[in-house]
Amino acid sequence: MSGGLEGNASVLSPEEAIFAASMVKAGQGHLFENWPAPGEKDAEKKALIQQIMQADAKYGGGIVQYIKNARKLLADSKAGVDAFAGFSPNIPMGETLTAHTDAWAAMEQVGLDSVAECSFMLVAGGLGERLGYSNIKVGLPTESFTGRCYLQYYIEQILAYQAYARETRRDDSITLPLAMMTSADTDARTKALLAAHSNFGMAEGQITLLMQGKVPSIEDNDGRIALDETGFQIQTKPHGHGDVHSLLHMSGTVKKWRKMGKKWLFIFQDTNAFALQSCLLGLGASVKNGFDMNSVCVPRIAGEAIGGICCLKSQNPDVKDLTINVEYNQIDSMLRATEQFKDGDVNDPVTGFSVWPGSINELVFKLESYDGALEESKGAVPEFVNPKYKDSTKTAFKSPTRLECMMQDFPRLYSNGALVGFTSLNRTYVRQYSPVKNNVKDAKAKQESGLEPACASAGEMDFYKWNCDILSCGGAGMAIGKPVHAEFLGIKVSIPPAVILSPSFAVGCKSKVSGGSLAPGSVLVLEGAGITLKNVHVDGCLIVKAKPGEEITLENLTVKNAGCKFVALTPEELAAAPEPVSIRGFRVDPIEMKTYTAAGKYTGEVTCDPSPVQ
Ligand code: UTP
């Protein structure tokens, strides 16, 4: 008996047979070519058809559309079509703010005043291949003392904003909703993490999980879908974070949020601890300027691997202008092709930074116009393809590729008239962006070539620096000791006093600290809304934990003890350490500390707790 699709008609249901025939028509006959005769591997044949049918249902327009899109994009890629032809770059419109200024504090206050109307979306479906961590990135600790993971930190920040909104508006019904985009790689573990910690304090129903699908891998310029080594499964890959828009639309989440009275949406990524603080500034700038979409940015050094926001003026009256992120590997060639910016991506001699603000992919949307654009487009942001060719003929790929889409390309979905801007946040003591993206080896290489390592140890040190900055800025005025230099796993770090502030303690740049000092190498942990520090000096380790509704005030207090030590792990310890510790390369040894947990007012000179930690 013969095999192939024709020979196996009896194995398939009528629906499966019709679907398989449509795939053959779309140039995918190779998927069934090597099928043996009926009776052999029949279950696998049906499973293959079912797998493609599922992918078909998940992709807007179905697999046939996906293949058409792939052929077009692959042809453009082969022909080297310039995506920016017909556009001329102009400086975009936006707000540039510097930390510790009145303008910054005022903008943050505008954001806080509107936070009651904000909804939140965390994209957390990425594979994290560059980090190589075997679990989900949002489960990584932000720092080694409390072990509070990114997801917990994010959720506690949203809950702190919710508490602020309830208190200032005197309305206990205000709820700030959080959605998370997961993928098959992260969904089950995200659910398990939330379940194990009772949603980190969020109410039942406050979190919505939306799982993105994967798309078929493509093996050649004709858009043929790639089979895996068994021959009975298609290869699939993530479609990119651009899926967030179609998921928010198709799930009805945007409509639901609008019904709840929400006017804004903040989309953020999995491991930048400062994202929710930046949200207040971005939100403030959106409210003030009426932005439909607003990209939070940091000052960008020319050539840096961060996309730049550009205003692209169209030379064709039928094509609208675009304010959009241009990827770092495209910006220089785009600029060099113009007369005005013929020197390419260079730093402005006055500011020392590129005039194109660096987008950190934290996006604020006005929900009304976002919803309108979703209705028109179904949220399908234009895709791109990035095949790795075997040679310059561009006829064969090194490995199968796929179409991807990016959430920052949303401006392409607005009809004319949407106001798209940026909010660039300049903080000199520590950058507003410190993601944990890279494994130790790559981070080391990046640091050696003068780039940010963006790894676990750097993320932790930046987290402490951020909190030091909060305590030293404005009215707080705590004197912060110099950082101590160290090297872990070949990565150079400067360890500032290790300050950990729970989101309930410091909302935005406001904190209930005035004066005092932290000696180099000290540790300060402040957990709870009811803590006040006035003229407190720490040389060692101080931990203060106030229960909800209780007040702990430390005034004219000096704490001196042996504190804690950051210790580099030996090769044996590294091998035995849990992964979140081994990717940092150090542990923190508590030697002595002073702890306050009971409500009250404390003053004087103290050393350590009665029974020091061994
Ligand atoms: P990254 O660019 O860091 O990609 O994603 P990644 O997939 O997580 O990591 P690499 O590139 O494999 O090393 C930025 C954000 O977008 C999310 C990630 O979870 C992260 O928060 N993302 C990325 C998705 O939600 N889905 C995707 O398909 C890709």
Supply the number of helical segments. 16
The amount of beta strand, in percent, is 15-25%
The H-level CATH homologous superfamily of the largest domain, spelled out, is Spore Coat Polysaccharide Biosynthesis Protein SpsA, Chain A
Distance between the termini: 76 Å
According to CATH, the fold-level topology of the largest domain is Spore Coat Polysaccharide Biosynthesis Protein SpsA, Chain A
Spatial order of the strands forming the largest sheet: 2-17-10-13-9-3-4-5
Number of domains: 3
Q: Strand count, sense and closure of the main sheet? A: 8 strands, mixed
Counting DSSP E segments of at least 2 residues, the number of strands comes to 31
Q: Which regions are unreliable across 5 or more consecutive residues at pLDDT < 50?
A: none
CATH class of the largest domain: Alpha Beta
Mean pLDDT: 95
- Kindly name the structural category: alpha/beta
Radius of gyration, CA atoms, in whole angstroms: 27 Å
Please estimate the helix content: 25-40%
Question: What is the overall shape?
Answer: globular
List cofactors, ions and other ligands: uridine 5'-triphosphate
